[in-house]
Design goal:
Helices cover 37% and strands 28% of the residues. By secondary structure, the protein is an alpha/beta fold. The protein has two domains: 226 residues, Rossmann fold (3-Layer(aba) Sandwich); 68 residues, Alpha-Beta Plaits (2-Layer Sandwich), CATH 3.30.70.980. Helix 6 links the parallel strand 7 and strand 8. The two termini are 43 Å apart.
């Protein structure tokens, strides 16, 4: 029998309806303690609604869940004591400084003043805001505000940190800084639940990813597993001293490609088998025809291709 204590989150048949609309439909999910787990999906997929249920902001319509070992419905106060939340939008007081914001949150949790002072200083150093600790937050950049939100979410030393699209709208440097901070927190043993629209971000950060669409988890696994299962074919791209449609057809037949493209002086072969075998076949074939290879590369499917294959190309509101 599985030891349930290894899981930070367990959901069984979790449903959330708004009138006749089903935002989350029979969600079954387990997230291990210490995991950096990602939710990926188009607008309206159910990611944020799921997070709001798991953080007790919304009451499920049906189903059950345990968060940090506590029943979501019956022990919501204990759940809230064990989780931290970094919302999409800045939800702190802009008229207060970082130190004042954290002090206010600490007092809500009933922290003693000596510990509160120590914890505030520690967290502001962690998120690289100590030098700005007494500056009003209203003039902060988006990245600074998000780092302050992370500090606020960590104030009571939670077991699980929920981060809902925390890098949306940030400049590249701020996104990198927040990702690095997230990785450090996870490396310390904290479970992190991370929702994002950024495929590259999800692939780099998350140990496992749940792809959601229309309220359901439609794929689940590591980035590599998702790319292998749902990404389609590996692509061999050739730039040659001679190229035309007939050569593209010959090469496609030679390597057993599922599809080929010839455009812009480039030949693309879509491979379902071992790409190294295709390389070993292509090189002597072209050499015999006295065709020089200017460039040749093989790349695996991207997480973006996985996403499009699973959720299609429809634009979502």
């Amino acid at each position: 029998m599985t030891d349930k204590t290894e899981y930070a989150i367990e959901c069984s048949g979790l449903v959330k309806k708004f009138g006749s609309f089903t935002a989350v439909n029979s969600l079954d999910l387990r997230v291990k303690k210490g995991e950096l787990f990602g939710f990926l999906g188009p607008n309206g997929a159910g990611k944020t609604t799921t997070i709001k249920m798991l953080t007790t902001l919304l009451t499920p319509t049906a189903g059950c869940a345990k968060v940090a070992g506590y029943d979501l419905a019956e022990e919501s106060a204990f759940v809230r004591a064990k989780i931290g939340v970094v919302p999409q939008e800045f939800a702190l007081f802009e008229e207060l400084s970082p130190a004042e914001n954290l002090w206010y949150i600490g007092e809500l949790f009933g922290m003693k003043k000596d510990y509160l002072k120590k914890r505030t200083e520690e967290l502001l150093r962690t998120v690289n805001l100590y030098e700005k600790k007494d500056v009003r937050s209203e003039g902060f950049s988006g990245g600074m505000k998000q780092r302050l939100s992370v500090a606020a979410g960590l104030m009571h030393t939670p077991d699980i940190l929920f981060m809902d699209e925390p890098t949306t709208g940030l400049d590249p440097q701020s996104r990198i800084a927040l990702r690095e901070l997230t990785q450090r927190l996870n490396a310390s043993g904290m479970t992190v639940i991370y929702t994002t629209h950024d495929m590259e971000e999800a692939d780099k950060l998350c140990e496992r990813i749940a792809v959601m669409d229309k309220g359901r988890v439609i794929a689940l696994g590591t980035g590599q597993e998702l790319k292998r299962t749902h990404g389609g074919y590996q692509r061999m791209t050739l730039s040659l001293s001679r190229h035309d449609e007939s050569l593209a057809r010959e090469l496609s037949k030679l390597v057993g490609a599922k599809e080929h493209l010839y455009r812009d002086g480039r030949i693309d072969l879509f491979l379902s088998g071992d790409p190294s075998e295709a390389v070993r076949a292509v090189i002597p074939f072209l050499s015999k025809k006295k065709i020089d290879i200017h460039d040749m590369n093989v790349r695996e499917p991207t997480l973006e291709e996985v996403f499009i294959n699973l959720t299609k190309k429809d634009v979502r509101d």
